[in-house]
Write a structure and sequence with these properties.
Strand order of the largest sheet: 3-16-15-10-9-8-7-4
Strand content: 15-25%
Oligomer: single chain
Pathway: Pyrimidine metabolism; UMP biosynthesis via de novo pathway; orotate from (S)-dihydroorotate (NAD(+) route): step 1/1
Number of strands: 16
Main location: cytoplasm
Largest sheet: 8 strands, parallel
Bound molecules: orotic acid
Number of domains: 1
Order of helices and strands: EEEHEEEHEHEHHEHEEEEEHEHEHHH
CATH superfamily: Aldolase class I
Catalytic activity: (S)-dihydroorotate + A = orotate + AH2; (S)-dihydroorotate + NAD(+) = orotate + NADH + H(+)
Keywords: Cytoplasm, Flavoprotein, FMN, NAD, Oxidoreductase, Pyrimidine biosynthesis
CATH topology: TIM Barrel
Shape: globular
Protein name: Dihydroorotate dehydrogenase
Amino acid sequence: MSLRVHLPGLELKNPVMPASGCFSFGKEYAQFYDLDTLGAVIMKAATKEPRLGNKTPRVAETSSGMLNAIGLQNPGVDKIINGEMPFLNGYALPKIANIAGSSPEEYTETAKKMSPHVQALELNISCPNVKEGGIQFGTDPHLASNVVRQVKKVSEVPVYVKLSPNVTDIREMAVACEQAGADGLSMINTITGMQILKERRRPLLHNQTGGLSGPAIKPVAIRMIYEVYPYVSIPIIGMGGIGSAEDVLEFLLAGASAVAVGTANFHNPFVMPEIIADLPGVLRNYGFSSVEEAIGGAHY
Ligand code: ORO
């Protein structure tokens, strides 16, 4: 049973990786298992300058999901390269850097610094939790095309664009990114949501709104990947509520070539090695002899 997947810049021994922001830079999870078990790692978003993120409370549990409004907290691209990456470089697995910014220049400067140290970039144009940057690029096809084009000019490695589900027609965004030169897509980022604290009659999160993730958004992610798949010829890394090998197969059938696991890591730190161990059996049960055979299988 082959779990291998070949994507631009990425030779994956299996299709499972942590979603950006849910794995920090790997140190915490390395206490639980060998990170080289994973197909790849996607790091927490990097920005040009350090960011402290939003005020607390910035995480809340919901039915079948989680709301977050972290606000792109990170130590800045230089500290990530010099302080965080040496640890990850002790592992052979491919590294993907998620990069964010408030302007095309901020994206390009971060991309220029980061790209020599990783196998691919994931361009975050979909963070729902910062006022400037992020989602404004991810909800307007012209702004998205411009930032993708600029980053492609400076990046030494393939660029995957992380799309926002907070749009009317995600196909339009996907096609705009492909035409601007994107090498792949990551979908989906979180869906904007809110929780009200009844005692205080106020939104629970200090930021008021947050990004909803976890099993609650899985059908939305599947629907969007299924919609985009016939419209693009670049690969899709799928994410949104994955918690089992059965979920992974559903994403592959919808059109994802690889997957990222996010929220599930918080309640079960072993979830990714467990999924990787279960995947061959699940593929076999549904009549597949490799991961690649299952990709897009729901479309034929
Ligand atoms: N939260 C998300 O849900 N998605 C992002 O891309 C970034 C954040 C955050 O840092 O708040």
